[in-house]
Amino acid sequence: MSTVTDVTSSSAFESHISSLSPHTTTIISFLTPWAVPCAQMSLILKTLASSYPPQDPPTVTFLSLDAEALPDISESYDVTAVPFLVIQRDGKILEKVSGSDAGRLREVVERHAGKGGNTGKDGLPPALEVEKRPEEDEARQTPAQPDMNGQTNNLSKYAPGANDPATAPEMSSTQGQAEETETRLQELVKAAPVMLFMKGTPSSPQCGFSRAIVGILREKGLADEDVRSGMKTFSDWPTFPQLYAGGEFVGGLDIVKEELESNPDFFAPYVAAPKGQGGMAAPEAQKQPPTAST
After folding, report:
1. End-to-end CA distance of the chain
2. Relative to the CA of 182, which of 156, 168, 189, 229 has its CA 20 to 30 Å away?
């Protein structure tokens, strides 16, 4: 069965691509190790790859790349969000798919690479089977033991009395920290008219997506670990960068590009007035909205 090749460098990617036959269909998956949807995509991709028998030369090959670790490759394929799938043959892109919908991914791969073998019902990854542990069966078969008074212990109707010690654990410090982080994030997203949460700093972005969105903000005259991890839950958005405007979540790089395509003046209310004219384009706007580095 075929497998997924993890590509860790630009040179390895170029070498692999150049070694392929013009007739080989290449499935390129862009992922990040910390995003939950990417873990699902990885499982789907491995399952699909295993359904294709290996051939020489290969008719289909599967590659997996860390989109943030290889930003140049990501940008060359216009990857703005992960997970992201690219199907190409002989250097020509046949189709792109964003997201981790198993049915959609299978349909696209099979359309261009042909159908593989059995990958479960409807070609989707097979359902996980759970087997009972031997000790669980033994516990179910062991009869209840009588206590010292000859009564069988049965806790199904047990209710604690007024004098019984409390059994519920106290609130952990982790929950208190989460609430504190939530309050801090609510204040941060409203700290400036436009607030960007990114990897690195504006002068030294640590991923291609963050570098691209910083460039957009600069063109428009805008320019700690707890925040980074908390923002994923707070925004319900698994990737960075994350842009807030007026305290409201806008989205990542792809959403910002779509907003500008539909409305070129999207950032107009937040742009600083030219020097010497005084005031701002919007009463609440500040000249240099702060950027939270994560």
Report:
1. 41
2. 168
Question: 204 pairs with which residues across the strands?
Answer: 201
Cα(43)–Cα(29) distance, integer angstroms: 12
Torsion of CA 109, 113, 117, 119, to 10 degrees: -10
- Contact between 213 and 80 (Cβ < 8 Å): no
Alpha-carbon dihedral of residues 274, 275, 277, 282, nearest 10 degrees? 50
Strand partners, 287: none
Sheet with 25-31, strands from edge to edge, namely 4-7, 60-66, 25-31, 84-89, 92-98
> SS3 string of the chain?
CCCEEEECCHHHHHHHHHCCCCCCEEEEEEECCCCHHHHHHHHHHHHHHHCCCCCCCCCEEEEEEECCCCHHHHHHCCCCCCCEEEEEECCEEEEEEECCCHHHHHHHHHHHHCCCCCCCHHHCCCCCCCCCCHHHHHHHHCCCCECCCCCECCCCCCCCCCCCCCCCCCCCHHHHHHHHHHHHHHHHCCCCCEEEEECEECCEECCHHHHHHHHHHHHCCCCCHHHHHHHHHHHCCCCCCEEEECCEEEECHHHHHHHHHHCCCCCHHHCECCCCCCCECCCCCCCCCCEEEC
Q: How, if at all, do strands 242-245 and 248-251 pair?
A: antiparallel
Q: Cα–chain-centroid distance for residue 27?
A: 19
Q: List pLDDT tens digits, range 151-203.
A: 555 555 556 666 665 555 555 556 667 777 777 777 777 766 777 777 777 66
> CB 244: neighbour CB atoms within 10 A?
24
Predicted model pTM: 0.47
